[in-house]
Amino acid sequence: MKKDAVRPLLEYGKEYETLSSLLEVRESAFLEADFIIESDTDGEQAVARSISKIVSGIMTSFRLCIPGASEHCVFVGNALTGALAAKIARMSRTRRSVIITDQNVASTCLNALIQQLQHHGISSQNIIVSPGESSKSIEVYSSVVKTLAELGVDRDTCIVGLGGGVVGDLAGFASATMLRGLPFIQVPTSLLSMVDSSVGGKTGVNLVESKNLLGAFYSPGAVFVDIDYLSTLPVRELQNGYAEIVKSGLLAGGDFWTWMTEHIGKSILQEPEILKKAILFSLQYKTNVVVNDPFERDRHGGRMLLNLGHTFAHAIEAETHYDGSVLHGEAVSVGLMLALQVSLQTGVCSQPGLLVDVENLLKKENLPTSLRELPLRTSSHALIGRFKNDKKKSGDAVRFVLMRRPGHAVVIDEVSQKILRSVIELDLADPLSNSER
Amino acid sequence: MSHNTFGHLFRVTTWGESHGPAIGCIVDGCPPGLAMSAEVIQPWLNKRRPGQSRYTSQRKELDHVEILSGVFEGSTTGTPIALVVQNSDQRSKDYGNLASTYRPGHADITYDMKYGFRDFRGGGRSSARETAARVAAGAIARTVLGDSIRIQGALIQIGDLRVSHTEQDWDAAGSNSLFCPDKALVPRWEELLDATRRAGSSIGAIGEVRVTGAPGGWGAPLYGKLDGDIAAAIISINAVKGVEFGDGFKVAQLTGFENADAIYLENGEVRFRSNHAGGILGGISTGSDIIVRFAVKPTSSILIPTSSIKKTGDPTNVSTTGRHDPCVGIRAIPVAEAMIACVLADHKLRHRAQSGHGESLLSFQNLFEQETNNEQYRAEGT
Ligand SMILES: NC(=O)c1ccc[n+]([C@@H]2O[C@H](COP(=O)([O-])OP(=O)(O)OC[C@H]3O[C@@H](n4cnc5c(N)ncnc54)[C@H](O)[C@@H]3O)[C@@H](O)[C@H]2O)c1
Ligand SMILES: Cc1cc2nc3c(=O)[nH]c(=O)nc-3n(C[C@H](O)[C@H](O)[C@H](O)COP(=O)(O)O)c2cc1C
Hints:
Largest sheet of chain B: 5 strands, antiparallel
Helix content of chain A: 40-55%
Strand content of chain B: 15-25%
Bound molecules: nicotinamide-adenine-dinucleotide, flavin mononucleotide
Number of helices of chain A: 15
Strand order of the largest sheet of chain A: 1-2-9-6-5-3-4
Number of helices of chain B: 9
Helix content of chain B: 25-40%
Order of helices and strands of chain B: EEEHEEEEHHEEHHEHEHEEEEEEEHH
Shape of chain A: globular
Strand content of chain A: 5-15%
Oligomer: heterodimer
Structural class of chain B: alpha+beta
């Protein structure tokens, strides 16, 4: 600003009056800011440094406006801890956080994070649960909220869910329910949680009766998708998340799907830059769907479509009795193939070539594409029986998300059992699965 | 009515239905004295048999041929040769409600239009089971034609995937189960066929048959055209919807200059610099390779329900259950080869009957010999 600049707003003697009325008008907008940098004491150099620390790692962000919930951003990039610290500071005046994570993530990422947060003036305590789906239980949930109570958290304590989908769902549900809602930040560390579970505000735990039966819609204050975390993720977990990327690509169609098909035959997971692009495409798609149908009210579109391949996947997972032998993404991978076959056999889709493309994409990342490739003994009878227990059902008919073509999914209320049986039996009897090729 | 016979001098009559006790044919007019036995015929039937490829129907058909007449002590006698193939795989449970519904894409509805009544078991006479009899007759026709004439078929397109112009090896086509002359394409075809099968659907194809070694002069103008008879023979194969020769339908895009096959002599033999005509001019063979291409429609019996009507007129949905054939074009290849063999054998005998022998009557050998003599003379003179 030039020294001699005239600032009519700040006319001598009226500064206080003018500024306080302006603040009154603008405060609500200011409060929406994702980050706040104090500039009272520091020089402009220091302010610039603070800004750069926050934004330098951020590649892109997607803003989610959900009615009834506060607007929040999904930030994507590398080395996002500076931004995370600034966000915690923004959400907790006392700059206090409790990090909820699992043992695997704790051993690889927790110490570094605690130190960096401390460096930025954020204090943190942590709660570490066992890794795996078994932690998404009422028992673990109640021990987590008990610990939070013991730690004496208040509504000014920010909860950070650092981990995969299990931690995200558990920490989110604890945040939603503890003191009727604590500030919550998602830091997904698995590919699946980055592209899928951390976005959309669904939190919850499993009951013995069914998966995700107890839960709440609870929007986090922010999601930090820091791609650096993927460097320690085991390969099988990376592949696990990839199935959801393929699903999103199919559902999104357009540029996303065109880009995917251009990568048939090349590994998307092995090239960090390509993987980053895939994550961005997926997040763009998912945030868009969530914004348009945040609470899954649309029975024939919106979030409902994200269940593509999941009716089969849930039945497969139920058949394993959740023993962990088949990962969710692996079940989704087979589920996508079966859902496409149902789409084709019902005549909803008329391009068998789509099955070839999807199979090639999945196979390239070593994902299973047929029931025969799973460590599982099942039958059409058993799987169809499981559909009835799927909570996506409405009334008695099994609802299916089917593909007409990439970018155009439809919800079919009633798919004939004859076709379901035919698809499953053809798949189980397939003489052309991996082993024989 | 009598529409089960084709050929004039080499005359084939087929009989039987898919789910009857047997099918077969009578080959009348085969010249005497040719070496013949079931062993000569059987390999060709094996090539057509279902289950040769993982992509063709998995029904069990043993297709064991038996010669009932016309062959004595390993030679044809000149009397009618009767061949029979027992139907071993006639499971009645397969028919379901075939009797009361019209399957889209099949001849059920036209049979009722024509006959008012039909043998509904597995498609009856219109079933491709009948093609086994044609293949058996084709084996005898090949013997009539002799070893100098080669009749080779290949699949050149499935769906949108066509073999490359340059990477074709027709010898390899005979040895892979998809009859594909382009090795690099086989995995892509397999993928597509597999996906099509899993989709419960089916896909069309284009086949090509090349005949090498047939002399010029076979066939007759107008009502006895060689290409006319071949076209009729190919169209008579189930599911074939189009036939073309040489450049076929592409000739519409050519100019007269481009389409003309320039003529020259080589060592006294008539030669053509190109073969846009596909080896036939005016219904008569030129001595160049005879090139026939045909389009086969996608299998009609699919798992995807299609709307139709019942015999009563009530609307219904039709779909097959269990295994189905994703591409009948594959199995049509040996049938097309056999049909062309029969037509050529017939025309060979017809040419011989009219012209005295089986070869081309146009010869420049005198000219050739004269020139060679002159050259020798000149050489000696120096
Ligand atoms: N809320 C939603 O909308 C939503 C959507 C999809 C899935 N989910 C849920 O997500 C869960 C699955 O998520 P997931 O696949 O991430 O499983 P997960 O959380 O169990 O993580 C997978 C494994 O990877 C380990 N891990 C995670 N990040 C790591 C890292 N950076 N380095 C090393 N190891 C790491 C974890 O410890 C675990 O062993 C399921 O419970 C599912 O129901 C929720
Ligand atoms: C070798 C061969 C095998 C065939 N197998 C089947 C089959 O398994 N299922 C089917 O629906 N059609 C099959 N067809 C095609 C039908 O027989 C044919 O489409 C039907 O009879 C209708 O006659 P049109 O297509 O010639 O008009 C086959 C054809 C050939 C040449």
